Each structure stands twice: as structure tokens, then as C-alpha cells.
């Protein structure tokens, strides 16, 4: 056998092995990916089942506790009872608008590609705040804004007045556009009160 023939056979053999190796590798990788996906979906299902069990078990207990607390607080009279009733009426609005504000903040946060401050930055500012409170310099600076108010010039007051008038004007125009009329809402007539 010549050297060229031997090298050719070895190249073919090597080429076949490489192809076989690649096909078995891709098959193994596909099978591993399928198994991993199945395990992930299985774990996800188990996690959701566990969460639903916990929420279904905790839900009635929390509802019972809240109901008993509400009935106990409902028996309180006087100013405290009025305050408790007011807080109970306002709670759904506060929860709703806090969720709206959190969602809006999240959208703005992502839209502006903002990042929260690092832990070291937060610690530095917090430590400086604590040191200024302990040394008393924080409270001595509290009078500085009042001193700045005393030193406002007439031009600054005039500029603030113009800005306030502009804001009031834009608000009023927006109200007119929103109501589609120039003058107030339709009020109740005298006959509706009787």
C-alpha cells in the first residue's frame, strides 16, 4: 500500500467518525434539552400547586382573622370608631393607587433604563445621615431653608407668581376641554333636594 492510499483511508475513517460523533452529540443534546424542559415544567407545576395549597390554606384563616378584627373594631364608638371607619373606607383606594403607582414606577424604571443605587452607595449616605443626626449638624441645617425664604427678592416672587398663573391657566384649559364647556359641572336642581 502506498502512503497516499493509507492517508486517504485514514482521512475517510476520521471523517466518518467525526460525522457519527456529531450526530450522536446533537441527539444527546436534544434529548438532554427535552429532559431539562420536562423537569422544569414539572417543577413549575409542583411550585404552582404548592403555592395554591398555601394560599388556599392561608386565605380562609386570614379572612377569618380580618373579619373578627373588623367586627371588634366596629364596636368601638366615638371619635376612635369614626377614625377606624374612615380608615376602613379608605383602605381599598390606598391599596389600588399604591399598586398603580408601583406599576407606573416599574414601567418608568424600565423605560429609562434606570438602576437602583448600589448597597455601598446607600450605606455611605445612610452613615452620613446618622453621623449628622448624632452630631446635631442635621438640626442646625434645618433653619437654613427658612433663612432662604426670608432672603427672596421681588423678582423671584414675581417669577413664582407667573409660573403659578401659567399652571393654573393650563389646568383650567384642561378642565374646559375635559368637560367640553366653559362653566362648571351640572349641579343638582332645587327640586332634586326634596
- First-residue to last-residue Cα separation: 120 Å
Q: pLDDT below 50 for ≥5 consecutive residues: which ranges?
A: none
Quaternary: single chain
The H-and-E topology, N to C, reads as: HHHHHH
Strand content: under 5%
Shape: extended
**Average of pLDDT:** 76
Number of strands: 0
Helicity level, as a percent range? over 70%
What is the number of helical segments per DSSP (H or I, 4+ residues)? 6
How is this structure best summarized?
This protein is mainly α and about 190 residues long.
Can you describe what's shown?
The protein is mainly α. Helices cover 82% and strands 0% of the residues. The chain is built from six helices and no strands. It has helices at residues 3-74, 78-111, 119-135, 137-140, 144-150, 154-179. The longest helix is centred in the first third of the chain and has 72 residues, at 3-74. The chain is extended and about 85 Å long. The termini are far apart. The model has no long low-confidence stretch (mean pLDDT 76).
Amino acid at each position: 500500500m502506498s502512503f497516499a492510499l493509507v492517508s486517504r483511508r485514514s482521512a475517510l475513517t476520521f471523517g466518518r467518525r467525526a460525522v457519527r460523533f456529531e450526530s450522536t452529540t446533537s441527539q444527546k443534546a436534544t434529548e438532554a434539552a427535552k429532559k431539562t424542559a420536562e423537569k422544569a415544567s414539572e417543577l413549575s407545576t409542583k411550585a404552582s400547586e404548592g403555592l395554591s395549597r398555601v394560599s388556599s390554606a392561608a386565605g380562609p384563616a386570614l379572612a377569618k382573622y380580618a373579619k373578627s378584627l373588623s367586627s371588634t373594631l366596629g364596636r368601638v364608638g366615638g371619635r376612635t370608631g369614626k377614625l377606624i371607619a374612615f380608615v376602613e373606607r379608605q383602605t381599598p383606594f390606598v391599596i389600588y393607587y399604591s399598586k398603580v403607582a408601583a406599576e407606573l414606577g416599574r414601567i418608568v424604571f424600565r423605560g429609562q433604563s434606570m438602576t437602583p443605587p448600589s448597597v455601598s452607595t446607600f450605606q455611605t449616605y445612610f452613615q452620613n445621615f446618622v453621623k449628622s443626626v448624632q452630631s446635631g449638624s442635621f438640626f442646625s441645617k434645618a433653619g437654613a431653608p427658612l433663612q432662604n425664604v426670608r432672603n427672596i427678592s421681588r423678582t423671584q416672587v414675581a417669577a413664582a407668581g407667573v409660573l403659578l398663573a401659567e399652571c393654573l391657566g393650563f389646568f383650567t384649559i384642561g378642565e374646559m376641554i375635559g368637560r367640553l364647556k366653559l362653566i362648571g359641572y351640572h349641579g343638582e336642581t332645587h327640586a332634586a333636594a326634596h
